[in-house]
Design goal:
This protein is α/β, with parallel strands linked by helices and about 210 residues long. The protein contains seven helices and six strands. Helix content is about 35%, strand content about 15%. α1 packs parallel to α6.
Length: about 210
Amino acid sequence: MTTETDRGTTRSFLFVLGSSRGDGNSEILARTAAAQLPADIPQRWVDLNLTPLPDFEDGRHDTGAWPGGENEEELRRATTEATDIVVVSPLYWYSVSAQTKRYLDYWSGWLSLPGGGFRERMAGRSLWGVTVMAHDEEVVADGLVTTLHHTAAYMGMRFGGVLLGNGSRPGQIRDDERAALRAKTFFRSATPLALFPYEDGTDPEES
């Protein structure tokens, strides 16, 4: 796990890298956006390939202690210590990668940890997304956006949106001038409280 931390500030970013290859297009775009953050805001970068988790097993209704491993505990602590969590995942089959989905599945287990208060701790914090896809039409990423938005809504978090870029071959995102321009101001975006469509009055068929 790569860690860059500074306890001197009240805001901190956790970047969760979910690509199946290192230095992928989504990571490149995320680092471009992260470079625009003020120097006094700490950043912590986690590569899920270097901090692997076994497939999630739902033991929420079992008795006894939660059988968490070292990597799980490290990820849980990193998640709860950050004020802003940035999910960095390429678009795989119109949603997040398997590594990213497994990480989010573990949130289900953390919700029921005795004395953990995971949901209470996450409420009010901000969730962001960064993804690069091969398709030119960004609407094909709606499934990924919905996954992250609804995760934030369930947790009572704020949602900063998803920074989208285009690329397939290694490094191709560097040719996407529109994504590079968006990255410069992405983390200045408003982070409204995430609400499910039935909570904010939006018709799901019109959203």
